[in-house]
Prior knowledge:
Bound molecules: flavin-adenine dinucleotide
Largest sheet of chain A: 5 strands, mixed
Number of domains of chain B: 3
Strand order of the largest sheet of chain A: 1-2-8-5-3
CATH architecture of chain A: Orthogonal Bundle
Order of helices and strands of chain A: HHEEHEHHHEHHHHHHHHEEEEHHEEEE
Radius of gyration of chain B: 23 Å
Radius of gyration of chain A: 21 Å
Structural class of chain B: alpha/beta
CATH class of chain A: Mainly Alpha
Number of helices of chain A: 16
Strand content of chain B: 25-35%
Oligomer: heterodimer
Number of strands of chain A: 12
Largest sheet of chain B: 6 strands, mixed
Strand order of the largest sheet of chain B: 3-2-1-7-21-20
Structural class of chain A: alpha+beta
Number of helices of chain B: 9
Amino acid sequence: MVEETPWQxxxxxxxxxxxxxxxxxxxxxxxxxxxxxxxxxxTYREIVALLHDPRVSSDPRKCPVAAGTEDLGExxxxxxxxxxxxxxxxxxDPPEHDRDRxxxxxxxxxxxxxxxxxxxxxxxxxxxxxxxxxxxKGKTRIDAVDDFAYPLPVTxxxxxxxxxxxxxxxxxxxIETALDALDFxxxxxxxxxxxxxxxxxxxxxxxxxxxAELLDRYADQPGPGMLSALVNEDGxxxxxxxxxxxxxxxxxxxxxxxxxxxxxxxxxxxxxxHPDALEKLRRRPELIVPGVEELLRFESSVQFWxxxxxxxxxxxxxxxxxxxxxxxxxxxxANRDPERxxxxxxxxxxxxxxQHLGFSQGIHFCFGAPLARLEVQVAVGEFVxxxxxxxxxxxxxxxRHNQIFRGPRHVLVDIDGIRD
Amino acid sequence: xxWRATVEELVREFRAxxxxxxxxxxxxxxxxxETLREEGFTGSLTIIGDEPYEPYDRPPLSKQVxxxxxxxxxxxxxxxREVDADWRLGVAAIGLDRAAKQVRLADGEQVPYxxxxxxxxxxxxxxxxxxxxxxxxxxxxxxxxxxEQLQKELAEPPSRVLVIGAxxxxxxxxxxxxxxxxxxxxxxxxxxxxxxxLGGVIGEIAAQMQRDHGVDLRCxxxxxxxxxxxxxxxxxxxxxxxxxxxxxxVVASLGSIRNVEWLEGSGLAAxxxxxxxxxxxxxxxxxxxxxxxxxxxxxxxRAPHVLYEYQFLAMEHWDNAVLGAEAAxxxxxxxxxxYRPHLLLPGFWSGQFGVNIKSVGVPPFGDEIVFTxxxxxxxxxxxxxxxxGRIVAAVTFDHGKWLEYYGKLIEQSGPFPPPPPGWxxxxxxxxxxxxxxxxxxxxxxxDVVLTGHAPSERTAEFRPRHR
Lengths: 420, 467
Ligand SMILES: Cc1cc2nc3c(=O)[nH]c(=O)nc-3n(C[C@H](O)[C@H](O)[C@H](O)COP(=O)(O)OP(=O)(O)OC[C@H]3O[C@@H](n4cnc5c(N)ncnc54)[C@H](O)[C@@H]3O)c2cc1C
């Protein structure tokens, strides 16, 4: 048997809880060609350079391997992408990307159009977090994922977008099904993952159908939230087509909760593993702002991204990424790159110059970053303040299958009580 | 004690009980003071500023403040950390005695220093005829007070504003006027707005942008005189072609003058172009000898830049004030070989007519330009400037996220024209003359590249070209 590359090992499910030793190995070759022809970039400096390089495409349709025209490796077998007929802002290049992002931005954040939209959500978010913590009163054991990390982002994103919260169980199921079949590691070829893929394709189609129907409803009768606004209002550059809008709606529903759930879960887990940091945050609540940035660096919600490819030969770090090659940018590794961050494996809530890649950089910089920051700051800040004597029950906890949106499935915590 | 130990002891002692004076209590002065404390300087720190205010930020003055979004007194610069200092605000430094190591103040006091930082910046060039400049309604914008007064008058609103000079600040004022729906005439002696900073090709685009927004733009013309009414309020301007413009507010944005007069007789290399210093912020004397105790930062500094053939560049940019101050302050409390160079790639941003204009590098150093990304028609684009086959600058209109890429290419002395992007290419990617008014004669030196990524690591490296 051929020995697995550090990247393949990092992607094995068995290593989900701790991929970092493999990342460390991986960084010895900043741009590492994989057996399937993918180029994995794992060092901070090189990732940043590629994020800003206009010869790098984010559009999978432009990548011969990923588009399935060549039978090379697994990326072709990605059901989510196949099921979506239209690109969204994360899977297309300028000028489409810029135009669609500009159209969506005013309805989400961004001075000057709506400078207060996100900050005005704070009272709601506080109420939600308070409610979740109140519900824990009387319990001695909680699940920081199911009882805390999950409900908050879902409720918030539904409100922001204008998606009925009653539909949440349906799309929760679709997302889980799709994610469980999305595998980039050696196990992708296994019978189990292959058998999940048909279901995943169906789930994404159902999800797309759901989004399309919702948009149709808003076209008939405008309602609250961003989706209705996008259906009904002309931006400076006109209106988005229904297909593109539906695809972006999926992206936002999906990204708006998946990543934030994992971030909150990981934040709780990380703080429980670092009692000094937890204590410090309890004593100095104002550290929550830099603290969340550090948590984003420490356990990136998006471990890597997989839709990029080279449109020209690109010389970087002594390697030439050939035209047409898929490029995976390993954010989770870059955020622990000792060339960029001193003592990267230490958690330092007061870290200076912490320009982590937890939200990426460049034109695809996370659209939802301001919302995510606010949610996590409130959630983690209140958890630390109110939960009495929290103790991890199981370390490491069980992890979810997916590698990109890496996160614990459950984080069981024993507690003494909930403060007011 | 060894010689080295003695030196180290002296540095420690200086950090503990030395006396540092900063002249200029604005962006560069404040950031330098913070850095000094950050670096463990616990001696006495005196900050002298002729303005009565605590350090405030200037970029909003010609933007948010004029629009009325932000009151002029809400522009105070955020403090990055505690600065325990003796603030002497509202009093100017009027002389420097290097032999006695004293700064002379307008109130007669002498302030002794062991090390001095000059951060006196620039001031606005006034309308040259003093009687006309004194008319009510005639403005320049540099200070909080300037912006406050002008904002009040714009809120009236005036029947027409005349902007003299279409550099960045003049163009921003014109843009604000249009946003406030005030008729505005812009008179520019050059062929187009922004032509000095960005060249004629971009200038044409800026001109079109102004016209599309209803600015009455008159290029290739000067204002010869301003006329007031009986009450001493400006009412009319006479232009060099004999025509007149009726306006009750006039904004002269004629560039800046470096605040160096107080250094006269000090023997420093201070003059029209600023105070000459090395890349570490150490001031030169008039003989070109570097001083040990006097440092310079911000708009008033003028230092050789490795990427631009060691020409002495004065960079009147926000980033330059911050990073130059940090480097100078670091060097003030350290010794060789721990000096840090200030090797910033110059950069500028400006918001006007709904477009975010940003540049990196030194565009006037280039003689060619090529559009590399986006669409000029839609005013979302990037363009690169070249000089002798290498990229020396870039400008973006609503495409700022790409600036970092061009900055890297510039630092690496990358080729011009740069490698073509994979998508979103403008139809015409052929280099053309950039049309700067004052082309320079190139000299022959090998390429220099910047290495390292943290400010403390950045150094220059020679990479002789083999063609
Ligand atoms: C209206 C406006 C808009 C701008 N917009 C932008 C922008 O969009 N982007 C950008 O990059 N840059 C912009 N700039 C430039 C930026 O503000 C300057 O680069 C920056 O302020 C320089 O800081 P400094 O500390 O070197 O100088 P200054 O801010 O000029 O400070 C110097 C200080 O020293 C004081 N002083 C002078 N002489 C003496 C003396 N003898 N004794 C005591 N004190 C003295 C001055 O009064 C002043 O307070 C703008 C500037 C202005 C005026």
